[in-house]
Design goal:
Number of helices: 6
Structural class: mainly alpha
Helix content: 55-70%
Largest sheet: none
């Protein structure tokens, strides 16, 4: 009453191996799959700190260059500095909470350094010497000018950069 069922074959009949049916219309010999790409370096605190420091220096130069070129201070640029530094720290270094705190500190330093670069560019435009002379040879006077010109918004920009870096590090590591 029931139909006979052939016994199960060992192996995978679709793999083209020794258990495959030789009378199949398209026998295929498969090459071994290539090895997967190595996973990106994550959870490396030292590399994350170095990447965040590098991003902070680049962002400080860009922030100062833009601010010096237009002779204004831009708050949204501090957000960009913080986001860049934090995201790079989180993406390269992983989920370590130390990286988020370090990114916030580096970002605040980058905003400060960017403001100093902007002041040095403006002073050099006024004919008081080249940028390198104003920035490197007269750094103490430059810091005094920053301290004198600093108002409440200057410190708000420093805080905005730090908070954004902290959040960016958390998002970058996710």
């Amino acid at each position: 009453m029931s139909q006979s069922v052939p016994p199960p074959q060992p192996g995978n009949p679709f793999a083209g191996g020794p258990a495959a049916d030789p009378s199949a219309p398209y026998p295929q010999a498969h090459a071994p799959a290539p090895a997967p790409a190595p996973a990106p370096a994550r959870n490396n605190i030292g590399l994350g700190l170095l990447a965040a420091l590098g991003a902070a220096l680049v962002a400080a130069g860009a922030y100062g260059g833009i601010g010096g070129a237009i002779e204004r201070e831009i708050g949204y640029a501090a957000v960009g500095v913080g986001l860049l530094v934090g995201f790079v720290a989180g993406k390269v270094g992983g989920r370590n909470p130390l990286l988020a705190v370090a990114a916030a500190v580096f970002s605040a330093g980058a905003v400060y350094l960017g403001q100093l670069v902007a002041i040095a560019i403006v002073v050099s435009k006024l004919g008081q010497g080249s940028f390198a002379e104003v920035f490197f040879e007269n750094f103490a006077e430059l810091a005094d000018v920053w301290k004198t010109a600093a108002d409440g918004m200057t410190y708000v920009f420093l805080a905005i950069g730090a908070v954004t870096a902290f959040a960016g590090a958390k998002k970058g590591s996710a």
